[in-house]
Amino acid sequence: MAEKYRFAEIEKRYQERWEEAGCFSAGEGDDAPRYYVLEMFPYPSGRIHMGHVRNYTIGDVIARYKRMNGFNVLHPMGWDAFGMPAENAAIQRNTHPAEWTYGNIDYMREQLRQLGLSYDWSRELATCRPEYYRWEQLFFLEMLEKGLAYRKKSKVNWCERCQTVLANEQVEEGRCWRCDEEVVEQERDGWFFKITAYADELLDGLDRLTGWPEKVITMQRNWIGKSLGATVEFQVEGRDAAISIFTTRPDTLFGVTFMSLAPEHPLALELSTGTGQESAVREFVERWSRMPSRLRLIEGGKEKEGVFTGAYALHPLTGERIPIFVANFVLMEYGTGAVMAVPAHDQRDFEFARKYSVPVKVVVMPEGKELSPETMEEAWEGPGILVNSGEFDGLSSAEAKERITARLEELGKGEKTVTFRLKDWGISRQRYWGAPIPVIHCPSCGIVPVPREELPVVLPEDARLGEDGRSPLPELASFVEVRCPRCGGEARRETDTMDTFVESSWYFARYTCTDCDTAPLDRKRVDAWLPVDQYIGGVEHAILHLLYSRFFTRVLRDLGWLSVDEPFRNLLTQGMVLKDGSKMSKSKGNVVDPDEMIKRYGADTVRLFILFAAPPEKDLEWNDKGVEGAHRFLNRLWNMVMEDREQLSAAGKPAGELDRELAGLRRKTHQTIKKVTSEIEERLHFNTAISAIMELFNAAQSVRSSVPESSPGFWPVMREAVEAMLLLISPMAPHIAEELWSRLGNKELIAQAAWPVADEAVAQADEVTVVVQVNGKVRSQLSMPRDADKEEVERAALEDPKVKRHIEGKEVKKVIYVPGRLVNVVAK
């Protein structure tokens, strides 16, 4: 009877041994090739969930695999520790965000240790600690000097429940991404990072991110939203004013039949003065200006509304009078807040024109189709050949765009223009639990940077939050009341804190030198490790975190802190963990507690199941039977090794002639090494790698039960197979692999062992599968010796029962043979 598999004892023992041996510490002077693998660090919410387990296990397999392949691996962990959830939780629990956060960090750290994750804990960081955010404040000051950080008044997204401003990216379908409260628009002073200064570079860099998922690249490309077109000036008739518009379709310029202004456009009310339309325009503007732009966009999509201002613009090329409307679907935030309306070639304009009886003029005719303004039921928005466009008639849309823009430039009425959907990053948050913005407001000197030698501006952890969540900083005299560094007069410290995405935009660089206390980054070490070779995290961060990190990396490069352009060379976006078809959540009652699973089955079982159940990029459906199946397999592996450990430990290496079954097992062993290596190295498909290991296990079990132990080479071949299994499965189920490796007499830890290398000669199959076709249709398959000649293969094909059925009563005209692959029998 084999000794029982006591997973709890084994896992605790090896977690302690790995730590004692410093197995996972990244070396600085090591000559080995470097590899940096990183999972997106967690927010310390209090408990890890199965999404965390999946993310971190994937990263751990890669780290262990690379380390066994001779790489000097950096695999760190830390905590994205600032933010509103800590404040909200602290308010609910009548505690302090710092106390709640640090307590959670301690608890979650222990949870991660129980999973056996190969982290270099000496590099652990928490973004809420002054020794981290002091450097972030330094970056802010350097960006302020370069004009990359600035303050302005703007309309912002305001979440009443969270009492803070949200970036556009943090508003999801009109609601706060954190608390789901409906977001309203307010005008406030706030701080911004000038990400638009890097828009072109961020866009161009996407073409070089060959290791990123295409869906993420597409999402970023669309968010940056580069548009090529022209800016066109329309003079207002009888006034010293002009309306500037941006269009991506200058080829449709001759089809303009009205102009549309956003309700907030500075000319909206002014143009109606003295036209008899003033009261109607004022009522319309007041009604729609009160509505947030995101809701206007929704409402404008349902029903196009507008009002005539009574004023006209003049066409820049024809001088034609064009009526000017104020319209609900035009937003001040996009472009110039004004649109040249071409109803024949823009659906929104078409719907508006039909509603308000504005003329429709066709100027782009699709090939092979005739458009009539009277009969059109929708706009033609595609390209075509220009008509009704004066000297530009007959040109294609592409050529007309260039020619019409050039003519506008000649006349001084327009120019070629590039615009971006991307807006500058608003980083001001009116909450307490965040990194203080290091500036002082002086009545005499204005905005004054905090002197660098006074950094960090420490967030006072003795401040108490009110029940409504409002930041205590504005009322905290010990924090707010300061002397101006320039004039010495009374001044006030900035009380806004930074968006938490600032912390996560550079943490990966700080991991390379967390012990550096004289500068944010040690240039030599950061350049040695960056970019991250493999980054792992959810696709929900495709825009927020990943775009900001790409921007911040370029800023730090230009400030002289690092050399790379991109932070992450390869990106894996893992799928969600589902239960009963839905994402796990407490509200749905479908949460599976990792602690409970580890207690019941062990960390290795949880790891093995979560890797085996689906490819990493796909969603994973939690299955209790699947977990039990993973546990059974580990028990079977345990029993097989433990029952034969004495014979296996005493066995040497395979040598000499082997019988067919032992040779077959040896071949299977080396084929499995090749297969598992390929699945991890090339595709990160751990599920198929585990499946291959299970197949080798079954093959070994079959040989164990059918081949006499006295057969020459029996135990050496079995030991080779077993050790290969343990080495191959060790990144996935490291604890049991360590224990069984030790029980076989190995002195070194398997975590420090070398990855197995397949012997190509042994792995070479003695037989090949040959597909047999009859008249081009697959009818059978043959297993043939690799060195079989043409006549032997043809004879076997013609004698195959399945083939015989399809050639019966027919004459075989010829047999075509593709060596080692295919036989095609032509019969009529």
Describe the structure.
By secondary structure, the protein is of the alpha+beta class. It is built from 28 helices and 34 strands. The strands form ten sheets. Strands 10, 11, 12, 13, 14, 15 and 18 form a seven-stranded mixed beta sheet that branches. The chain has a four-stranded parallel beta sheet with strand order 2-1-26-27, with helices on one face. A hairpin with a 5-residue loop joins strand 10 (226-236) and strand 11 (242-247). Helix 1 (7-21) packs across helix 25, helix 23 (686-706) packs antiparallel against helix 24 (714-729) and helix 24 (714-729) packs antiparallel against helix 25. The model has no long low-confidence stretch (mean pLDDT 94).
SSE layout and pairing:
Layout lengths: L6 H15 L12 E6 L10 H19 L3 E3 L3 E2 L4 H10 L3 H18 L10 E2 L3 H16 L3 E11 L4 E3 L4 E2 L2 E2 L7 E10 L5 H7 L8 H11 L1 E11 L5 E6 L10 E4 L5 H4 L7 H12 L3 H10 L3 E9 L6 E7 L10 E4 L5 H9 L8 E2 L19 E2 L10 H15 L2 E7 L4 E2 L1 E2 L9 E4 L3 E4 L27 H4 E3 L6 E4 L3 E2 L1 H4 L3 H4 L12 H7 L4 E4 L6 H15 L12 E3 L3 E3 L2 E2 L10 H8 L1 H10 L7 E2 L2 H20 L1 H6 L9 H24 L2 H21 L7 H16 L4 H10 L16 H4 L3 E8 L2 E9 L4 H10 L1 H7 L4 E7 L3 E6 L1
Parallel strand pairs: 1-2, 1-26, 3-4, 12-14, 26-27, 28-30, 31-34
Antiparallel strand pairs: 5-6, 5-9, 7-8, 9-19, 10-11, 10-13, 10-18, 12-15, 13-14, 16-17, 20-25, 21-22, 21-24, 23-24, 28-29, 31-32, 33-34
